[in-house]
């Protein structure tokens, strides 16, 4: 029997937490539609996000240090990946919009230079920008290559996530979390161990990396050693997820913090009627732009000024998803952002159905997670990119 999770730094005691909770018969591979939210022109919801398309810099995705790479002015670099799996049975609707919104947010809110952001989507014309397994691997290598103290790096992924059985004993729940590149059915998935080795362990002192992962089973997809377990009242403890084998999953002195769309044993949609709901949604709201629910809530927290600390942004994201899932709307979210008229109520109720599995009794519990290389006080540490 696996040893119980060890907890460290109980900064705020969390009653009723069950560290030994295990999923019931989790599938080896589970690709369900992510919960997504639709909004009438995104510029009405987020005034600063007035552009949904722009060029991505050209760069050679090759793992040789001697090759040139984009000029990361101001020591800021980002890799943004949005995969729609178009024309496949796994197709998603909002992932490329997620990528475009995130790119615009980084440029206009956090002053990332345009030529230091690499976009990987099916809409890109350059072969090296298609989000297949090889290109994602090379982009992650480029992201951390040559980083120096003072650098700020970001990896955003919007697409399918899954999990597979772990056999080396370094996972608390017995499963490796994975990301699904465009060609995952032929080339395989990208496992959390590989992601950790690629963009976590190389981070040196003075460098900060943020990851924003909008996918199923994504709670610990970077394999970071500590997970912030937070209750509905905002009280939290840090769970110790370091492997019992002693394998190092931390950095080389730098800082890595990840926001993810849900816990390892959660999916962003879980209902057999989801395809019918999505069909109705498309027919009824054909002129509405779709984005992932987690990405929407992350951007909303920043736009509303609720991202002063890591704790405040996590609480804001969870509160938005929770209030929607309970049928109470977005708490002044989508409906009010749309001006309260026309299809706003329909959008809110549809998002609520998606988040509860299409019923009033619930089904899906999507709870954004925060993981890090080291524990910290989430209510005093300022959030910055």
Automatic annotation (TrEMBL):
A cellular component term, taken from the record's GO annotations: cytoplasm
Gene3D superfamilies: 3.40.50.12660
Molecular function terms from GO: cysteine-type endopeptidase activity
Any single GO BP term: proteolysis
Ranges for region Disordered: 1-27
Domain Peptidase C14 caspase: 75-324
Compositional bias segments (type: Basic residues): 1-10
Family per record: Belongs to the peptidase C14B family.
PANTHER family: METACASPASE-1 (PTHR48104:SF30), METACASPASE-4 (PTHR48104)
Protein's UniProt name: Metacaspase 1
């Amino acid at each position: 029997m696996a040893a119980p999770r060890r907890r460290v730094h109980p900064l705020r005691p969390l009653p009723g937490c069950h560290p030994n909770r295990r999923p019931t018969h989790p599938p080896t591979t589970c690709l369900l539609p992510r919960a997504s939210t639709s909004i009438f022109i995104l510029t009405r919801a987020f005034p600063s996000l007035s552009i949904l398309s722009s060029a991505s810099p050209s760069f050679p995705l090759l793992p040789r240090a001697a090759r040139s790479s984009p000029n990361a002015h101001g020591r800021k670099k980002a890799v943004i990946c949005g995969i729609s799996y178009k024309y496949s049975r796994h197709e998603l609707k909002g992932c490329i919009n997620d990528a475009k919104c995130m790119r615009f947010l980084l440029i206009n809110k956090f002053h990332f230079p345009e030529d230091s952001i690499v976009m990987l989507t099916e809409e890109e014309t350059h072969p090296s920008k298609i989000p297949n397994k090889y290109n994602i691997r090379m982009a992650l290598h480029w992201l951390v290559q040559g980083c120096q103290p003072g650098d700020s790096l970001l990896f955003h992924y919007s697409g399918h996530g899954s999990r597979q059985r772990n056999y080396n004993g370094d996972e608390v729940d017995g499963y490796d979390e994975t990301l699904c590149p465009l060609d995952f059915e032929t080339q395989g998935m990208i496992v959390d161990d590989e992601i950790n080795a690629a963009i976590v362990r190389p981070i040196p002192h003075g460098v900060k990396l943020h990851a924003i992962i909008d996918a199923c089973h994504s709670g610990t997809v970077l394999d970071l050693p500590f997970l912030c377990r937070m209750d509905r009242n905002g009280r939290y403890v840090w769970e110790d997820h370091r492997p019992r084998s002693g394998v190092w999953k931390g950095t080389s002195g730098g800082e890595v913090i990840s926001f993810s769309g849900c816990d390892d044993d959660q999916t962003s949609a879980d209902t057999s009627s989801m395809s019918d709901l999505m069909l109705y949604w498309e027919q009824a709201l054909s002129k509405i732009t779709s984005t992932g629910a987690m990405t929407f809530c992350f951007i909303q927290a920043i736009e509303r000024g609720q991202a002063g600390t890591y704790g405040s942004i996590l609480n804001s994201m969870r509160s938005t998803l929770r209030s929607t899932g309970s049928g109470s709307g977005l708490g002044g979210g989508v409906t009010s952002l749309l001006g309260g008229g026309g299809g706003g109520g329909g959008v809110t109720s549809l998002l609520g159905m998606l988040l509860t599995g299409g019923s009033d009794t619930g089904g899906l519990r999507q709870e954004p997670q925060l993981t890090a290389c080291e524990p910290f006080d989430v209510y005093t540490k300022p959030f910055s990119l």
